[in-house]
Amino acid sequence: MTHGPVGSMLTAMVTPFHADGSLDLDGAQELARHLVDKQANDGLILNGTTGESPTTTDQEKSDLVRAVRAAVGDDVHLVAGVGTYDTAHSVHLAREAAAAGASGLLVVSPYYSRPPQEGLLAHFRAVADATELPVITYDIPKRTGVSIDVETLVRLADHPRIVANKDAKGDLDAAQWAMRRTDLAWYSGDDILNLPLLSVGAHGFISVVGHIVGDRLAAMAQAFWAGRVQEALEMNRAMLPVYTGIFRTQGVILTKAALALQGLPGGPLRLPLIDATPEQIACLREDLRNAGVPFEVTA
């Protein structure tokens, strides 16, 4: 299936925790194997926002990469989130991720400080210069407060290790111009736009709902690339309740709730995120039923 430089179906994996909030490396290994073996993932994103990276230590981040690499072997693309709002810290995390066995880096725009475009350029280039690993820029202005302009992406694409962009900007105009003007591989980072972005040239998905419908996303992409557009459209429409349902509140919250319904590792969340309420879980069950996603009915 692989169309992009780090795979085509990648799930932004949650970080499993034990009941006491400590890192659950055994659970992470089990979940990673499930995503690869059962959910058709040819790559995984670790230590991203969905992995609750703001709440994990540098050591926990490295330990997670090492454990998951040991679980899935060398053939799976393993991309480590290393972006922060501190360039020096991001460089440090990039080097640590490379040493731990990552095969790529995901670098989100610096958040909160809202740097100008020249600051973004310098930030991404510094991280890309820190290792020999391929880098995916991550554009999600609704969280970071700043977007990566098309002109900035054009300039970033000149760097030999900046190879792709994760697009969660929700701007199909900008996406199409960036794809036209660069050779960056394009990944949908907003599940509701997975098929629309495929239709204008995206190489695959970096998905949250891939935890539970990764196999269906992979099949949809295959159908689209094979020219079976109506089939892909129908598959996409069938997944709409999942796209919407997982994000009725913060996505990690309901992703971990969905994994619990399926008997998979996830565990609690670390503050300031909180576990799903009974009412939210009841709504999630209905969303999963409407999308035909199997799960264990539990009290």
Describe the protein:
This protein has 299 residues and is α/β, with parallel strands linked by helices. The protein is 46% helix and 12% strand. An 8-stranded parallel β-barrel has the order 1-2-3-4-5-6-7-8, surrounded by 5 helices. Helix 2 runs parallel beside helix 3. The longest helix has 16 residues. The mean pLDDT is 97.
What is the C-alpha radius of gyration, as a whole number of Å?
A: 18 Å
β-strand amount:
5-15%
Termini distance? 38 Å
What is the helix fraction of residues, given as a range? 40-55%
Number of distinct helices = 13
Oligomer state of the chains in this structure: single chain
Name the shape in a single word: globular
Describe the largest sheet: 8 strands, parallel, barrel
Arrangement of strands in the largest sheet? 1-2-3-4-5-6-7-8
Number of strands: 8
Which class best fits the helix and strand makeup?
alpha/beta
Q: Please tell me the overall pLDDT.
A: 97
Regions with little confidence, pLDDT below 50 for 5+ residues: none
Order of helices and strands: EHEHEHEHEHHEHEHEHHHHH
Main traits of this protein?
single chain, 46% helix, alpha/beta, 299 residues
Brief rundown of the structure:
The chain is 46% helix and 12% strand.
